[in-house]
Automatic annotation (TrEMBL):
Residues 485-832 form the RSE1/DDB1/CPSF1 second beta-propeller domain. Residues 15-388 form the RSE1/DDB1/CPSF1 first beta-propeller domain. This is DNA damage-binding protein 1. Residues 268-298, 1169-1188 are annotated as: Disordered. It comes from the Eukaryota. One of its GO terms (molecular function) is nucleic acid binding. Keywords: Nucleus. The keyword Cell inner membrane does not apply. It holds the Pfam family Beta-prop_RSE1_1st. The keyword Nucleus applies. Residues 884-1205 form the RSE1/DDB1/CPSF1 C-terminal domain. InterPro entries: Beta-prop_RSE1/DDB1/CPSF1_1st (IPR018846), Beta-prop_RSE1/DDB1/CPSF1_2nd (IPR058543), RSE1/DDB1/CFT1 (IPR050358), RSE1/DDB1/CPSF1_C (IPR004871), WD40/YVTN_repeat-like_dom_sf (IPR015943), WD40_repeat_dom_sf (IPR036322). The lineage of its organism: Eukaryota, Fungi, Dikarya, Basidiomycota, Agaricomycotina. Residues 283-297 have a biased composition (Basic and acidic residues).
Length: 1245
């Protein structure tokens, strides 16, 4: 079975809204909706503060606030999209004494098996009184929901003759009436604006257009419905308006904005009387007279209009309370304010504000601050300034030359050259009026992606083709702790350890740093923020000796009562080298170290001259505030403390291995598990030959309390630690750093080392360093890579540090660098701070209008090839101009190496880094497939195949096209088989060889084989000599290239409409379809032929564009992972910015996890506002779930399974899940094993 889980959640923002409570603070909240998540933010003076979130099992389409003012409650309506739309009622309640509550109160199903899905307008409206909600999901029908105090009361359906609905707006002509404005395309393809009255008594819309606004035809030349449809905005009545104005409707989204005013009450009365007479004439069959009267009707003119010189409007919001100012954003990120002036000389004024991300949603907050949510770019928090914010001489926004603009609103008069009444104003000054207050990263939509490990560290980076419109970008996504560098000290290579030193043990300020290399020790004094001085004569042993330990010490003094000893503050500092102990005193006034007493204590002196000590070397050492534990050669462990400024040998123990020989010590640790203690009652000791770790008591004769099993690799470092966040009574952890780069963790419980886990940290020996990160104690595990270990959500977690070659780490707190870290790298010391222990790092390379569409990585060339499409912004209705290019980037620095610009109307459709055979030699290159766009063609008839590679002979910035071949169609995909190039050209699969001319050595494509399909081949995957073909309409086919021919191995004939496919291995296939399902096939041997048998079908809820074989973190060895049989197989990427992981799970474990998923589904369905997980994950098509697919199979929901870890100490919830609802559903797997499996799953994403 396969487990589907999330590495990066959807980041595309689809909708937003704002509301204010009537509490004493007038609390304001911003609601942000993503694909399946609702987030609540409070508005604070410093910005947005996250308050709560709720997962929605469905695809969120719209969110609205019910406008009912309350002091502690906010009511929300969320509309989820097809194939099973629902209206979800959500209440957010604030509390002063406990956590705020966000809960689902009701779900209203809107699904219909026979309804025709609305093509243009699937949305939700709430009327200004908060009494009604109108939902459009199916053509010819609206769902009207009556609300009572923000909650569901009743609902009914109303039919509409307007089938192709484009937009709706609610109008309140009087407190007791509700009128709906509709914009639609009629059966003659004409754009019509009209209104209908909604009758709550008759539960229907009026069959005749309302007298509020008679039917108005709109000129088709001004509007386009190709991408963004026109929108309606109601303009309410204001006290300052002239008496003749009874409200109006704005029509936006075309090349012109129109304001149509509503009829006053008297005019409505006359219109209704006229409609009554007309109906009477129709009833008398006097059709000629009726047609004559209709012909006399005058076409209603717009009260005001203004040219819209930009692209289609993608989002809008109201700014003021009276509905006279609106923010409009077009699909290329142009933000404009629309001002409506209602007077005898009414006008519309557009004020250009600046460029932003393409807006999907706009929400005005307060104090000229607006939230912009985006699908194609980063979401932004923007502040609008009335004056320009830069001295730029460029216009605020680009405007075509034939459109008249002004730099400020002039005082016009009737008859002026620029007639305000008919055209309005476009104010376009100089410079931007926008300040970005905050930015929220978004990697959607992901069109393509590559998995890259440029430094071969085992920690992969995901590189995505993201963004669109004016915010195209290449995104590098990597998980790890966020380190912010503040200063660096260079010129000290090969540092192995560092110790910041304080003037007093209790002093929080560090004054010196001691650093050790394998050959020498350095002492630095921290002078100020910019200066660190090397102290040559420091008192420390520095000459050609490696330091093992440096530690500030406390003094033991008698208690006042004279009974026992206590610890007091001191300025003493301990240094341990390979053959001596040094005791120093730091003079705070002089800032100098001096040796105390004899200063240096050799091993012979420590033992009082006893034999057997002089020749022993200190091979390992550890110290705390009052104890020193030394691991000596020949298997001896010595315990030392000090009194009267002298070192005192407490005792020792000689270790032997099971065979009777000497047990050489490899590592020791006496760090107290409780950081507040000055001593430790126990120590950890590791051994070379046995690879075991023993916990010993530090009371003579130092007996062994417990021991670990023999580890697969040598233990090189040890640390006993209780993590911040664990209770004081919790058992401590033993951390073991192994020589193979793996951290083994144990829990010391009941005098036994249990719950062993492994964390990979590269392939070099691991050392531990206790530090403070983000205000809490954490452990840095340093090997070839560095990982930060910390305690969160009742379990030990780790996060890679985005720094290479960190040898050591320590907390540093100075006057200038507070709560910081100092790290030892291969070049010296780095001072900085960990901003976040667990964070996805997203690095962006912005390409602007060059929108990345395809990407491939070549490890040989260490380059990324990116296919980009550039769409030049145009006005509404004008044809777009596009041009493609292939750009090469360095895979480490992301510096641009060069590009190949394609012909006009030519776009890259496929890019693949391949190793092809040229004259019996392997050649690594990029193969690019293109299409030439012709708007008059239904199916493309021409394209090209290009062979692209960096030409380093002409400089690093040159990219050469080594071969080019014209093809008869669009090249949808490319692959390689047996050193040949395979291309999917329209409905054919064509194999080419790369041939070199005998004389010129010029390369060319030579066709070898062609295989034709019934449908367009959109996906092509190769594995060995097998080819997986995914067509655009039907399903998948498996081909085999053998003896120079393509043979059909097996084919599935079900109508899946696959969007992406990949091969798991030679017999298993995974893919996704356009109904947001995942599927799997396995190759089976039938009686007569091989068949593809479907063995997995699962509703994921998002459109998957790409599968990539591989994993984010390099897995542990099979020996270590054998107890938990899970293995990551695939990564996948979606249109809303989600990155998922497909993990393979053994059959035996899958049975247990399937039972756990079933019981979790039952448990959550029984909670208030719960839903059926089985129903949600059942495969779906455009009509919803079929009777044959009432549940998913072959896949498990990893995100749901991992919710079990969130129960923590909720014993009742754990009991219900383990026992199930019946005896047959009781789980047979132990909860400890469940936690171990789920933590292993979490470590893979």
């Amino acid at each position: 079975m396969k487990v589907v889980t999330t590495f990066h959640p959807s980041s595309s923002v689809l909708a937003s809204c704002k509301w204010q409570l009537l509490d004493d603070a007038r609390s304001e909240f911003l609601v942000i909706a993503k694909l399946n998540q609702l987030d609540i933010y409070s508005l604070q003076p410093e910005g947005l503060k996250y308050e709560d979130g709720l997962e929605i099992w469905g695809r969120v389409r719209a969110v609205r606030v019910v406008p009912i003012k309350k002091s502690t409650e906010m009511h929300l309506l969320v509309l989820t999209d097809h194939p099973e739309p629902e209206l979800v009622f959500i209440t957010y309640t604030t509390h002063t004494s406990r956590k705020n509550e966000l809960r689902i109160t009701k779900k209203l199903s809107l699904a219909e098996r026979t309804g025709r899905i609305a093509e243009f307008f699937v949305d939700l409206l709430v009327d200004p009184t908060g009494q009604l909600a109108i939902v459009s999901t199916y053509a010819g029908k609206l769902k009207v929901v009556q609300l009572d105090d923000g909650e569901y009361d009743s609902d009914f359906d109303v039919s509409t003759t307007e089938l192709n609905l484009l937009s709706l707006a609610t109008i309140l002509p009087s407190p007791d009436d509700l009128t709906v404005a509709l914009l639609h395309v009629d059966y003659q393809q004409r754009l019509q604006l009209l209104t209908r009255d909604l009758s709550l008594k008759e539960l229907q819309l009026s069959p005749l257009p309302s007298a509020v606004l008679p039917s108005v035809p709109l000129a088709a030349k001004h509007f386009s419905v190709d991408e963004e449809v026109p929108k309606l905005i109601h303009v309410p009545i204001s006290e300052k308006d002239e008496e003749s104005f009874a409200g109006g409707v704005l029509v936006i989204g075309g090349s012109k904005i129109f304001l149509y005013d509503l009829a006053p009450a008297e005019k409505q009365r006359k219109q209704k009387e006229k409609q009554r007479r007309t109906q009477k004439k129709k009833a008398s069959a006097d059709s000629d007279e009726v047609m004559k009267d209709e012909g006399k009707e005058k076409k209603k003119k717009a009260r005001a209009s203004v040219e819209w010189p930009w692209a289609e409007v993608s989002a809008w919001c109201q700014v003021d309370d009276v509905g006279r100012r609106f923010l409009l954003g077009d699909k290329f990120g142009r933000l404009v304010m629309l001002c409506v002036d209602i007077s005898s000389n009414s006008s519309l004024t557009l004020i250009a504000l600046g460029e932003t991300s393409p807006a999907t949603t706009l929400t005005y907050l307060s104090n000229q601050v607006v939230y912009l949510g985006s699908h194609y770019g980063d979401s932004q928090l923007l502040q609008i300034s009335p004056s320009r914010l830069s001295d730029s001489d460029t216009p605020t926004l680009p405007v075509p030359g034939d459109i008249h603009t002004v730099t400020h609103i002039p005082h016009s008069s009737p008859g002026s050259d620029y007639d305000r009444r008919h055209r309005g104003f476009i104010v376009n000054g100089r410079g931007s009026h926008l300040t970005e207050v905050d930015r929220f990263q978004n990697i959607a939509p992901i069109y393509d992606a590559a998995l890259v490990d440029p430094d071969n560290s085992g920690q992969y980076e995901v590189v995505t083709c993201s963004g669109g419109q004016n915010t195209g970008s290449i995104r590098l996504v990597r998980s790890g702790a966020d380190f912010q560098e503040a200063a660096a000290i260079g010129g000290i290579p090969n540092i192995t350890n560092i110790w910041p030193v304080r003037s007093l043990y209790s002093d929080p300020i560090h004054t010196h740093i001691v650093a050790s290399t394998p050959q020498e020790t350095y002492v630095f004094r921290i002078d100020n923020k910019h200066t660190v001085s090397h102290v040559a004569d420091s008192g420390f042993v520095t000459g050609k000796k490696r330091t093992l330990v440096v530690q500030n010490l406390q003094k033991k003094v008698p208690k006042e009562a004279g009974q026992g000893l206590t610890y007091m503050d001191s300025s003493l500092v301990l240094q341990v080298t390979s053959d001596e102990l040094v005791l120093l005193n730091l003079d705070k006034g002089l800032g100098e170290f001096t040796r105390v007493g004899d200063g240096v204590c050799k091993m012979g002196q420590l033992a009082g001259g006893k034999p057997g000590w002089i020749d022993r070397e200190i091979v390992a050492a550890s110290a705390n505030a009052s104890q020193v534990v030394l691991g000596l050669s020949f298997g001896r462990l010595a315990v030392v403390n000090f009194a009267d400024n002298k070192f005192k040998l407490v005792g020792y123990r000689d270790f032997t291995n099971p065979s009777g020989g000497i047990a050489e010590i490899s590592a020791v640790s006496c760090t107290p598990a409780d950081q507040s203690k000055s001593f430790s009652p126990m120590a950890a000791v590791a051994f070379w030959q046995t690879h075991r770790v023993e916990i010993i008591s530090l009371g003579s004769p130092f007996p062994t309390l417990c021991a670990s099993v023999s580890l697969p690799s040598l233990p090189r470092s040890l640390l006993m630690h209780r993590f911040a966040g664990e209770s004081a009574n919790a058992p401590p952890h033993l951390l073991v750093g192994r020589a193979d780069g793996v951290v083994a963790t144990f829990v010391l419980k009941d005098k036994a080392l249990v719950e062993q886990k492994q964390i990979p940290v590269g392939n070099l020996p691991v050392t531990f360093h206790t530090c403070k990160a983000k205000g809490r104690t954490a452990v840095f595990a340093c090997g070839s890579r560095t990982s930060v270990l910390f305690w969160e959500k009742d379990r030990l977690r780790h996060s890679p540090l985005i720094l290479k070659e960190v040898a050591a780490a320590a907390s540093l707190h100075t006057h200038d660098y507070r709560s910081s870290l100092v790290l030892a790298t291969s070049e010296g010391l780095v001072i900085g701070d960990v901003q976040n222990l667990e964070k996805l790092h997203i690095r962006s390379i912005h390409t602007g209008l060059d929108n990345p569409r395809r990407i491939s990585h070549s490890p040989v060339h260490k380059a990324l090839a990116v296919g980009c499409v550039r769409h030049t912004p145009v006005r509404v209705g004008e044809p777009e101009i596009s041009r493609g290019s292939v750009q090469l980037y360095n895979d480490t620095t992301l510096d641009k190496l060069g590009q190949v610009v394609l012909d006009h109307d030519e776009e890259p459709m496929a890019i693949k880094a391949l190793s092809v055979r040229v004259a019996e030699e392997a050649k690594d290159c990029f193969v690019v497939g293109t299409v030439i766009i012709d708007s008059l063609e239904n199916e493309s008839s021409s394209g090209r195949l290009l062979l692209v590679e960096p030409d380093y002979s002409r400089g690093e910035s040159f990219v050469a096209v080594s071969a080019s071949e014209k093809v008869k169609g669009c090249v949808y995909a490319v692959a390689a088989v047996d050193g040949l190039v395979v291309a999917a050209v329209n409905s054919a699969v064509v194999i080419y060889s790369i041939e070199a001319d005998d004389h010129t050595r010029a390369l060319s494509f030579v066709k070898k084989v062609e295989w034709n399909h019934n449908y367009v081949v959109a996906n092509l995957v190769s594995r060995g000599n097998l080819l997986l073909v995914g067509d655009a309409i039907s399903s998948v086919t498996l081909l085999q290239y053998e003896r120079g021919a393509l043979q059909n191995v097996a084919r599935d004939y079900s109508p899946l409409w696959p969007t992406s496919v990949e091969m798991l291995d030679e017999r298993n296939v995974i893919g996704a379809d356009n109904d947001c399902n995942l599927f799997m096939f396995t190759l089976q041997d039938g009686a007569e032929r091989k068949v593809l048998e479907r063995n997995g079908h699962y509703y994921f809820g998002d459109m998957v564009n790409k599968f990539i074989p591989g994993e984010i973190y390099r897995a542990l060895s099979s020996f270590e992972a054998s107890d938990i049989e899970v293995e990551p197989k695939q990564l996948f990427f979606t249109t809303t910015g989600s990155i998922g992981v497909v993990i393979d799970m053994s059959d035996e474990l899958s049975l247990h996890m399937s039972s756990l998923q079933r019981n979790l589904s039952t448990y959550f369905a029984a909670q208030p506002g719960g839903a059926s997980h089985t129903k949600y994950r059942a495969p779906k098509n455009a009509r919803g779930r079929s009777d044959a697919d009432n549940s998913s199979f072959g896949f498990l929901d990893g995100d749901l399974l991992e919710r079990f870890l969130l129960f923590g100490d909720d014993e009742e919830a754990v009991r219900k899940v383990l026992e199930g609802s019946t005896e047959a559903e009781q789980l047979s797997i132990a909860p400890e094993r469940i936690i171990k499996v789920l933590e292993r799953l979490q470590s893979m994403h």
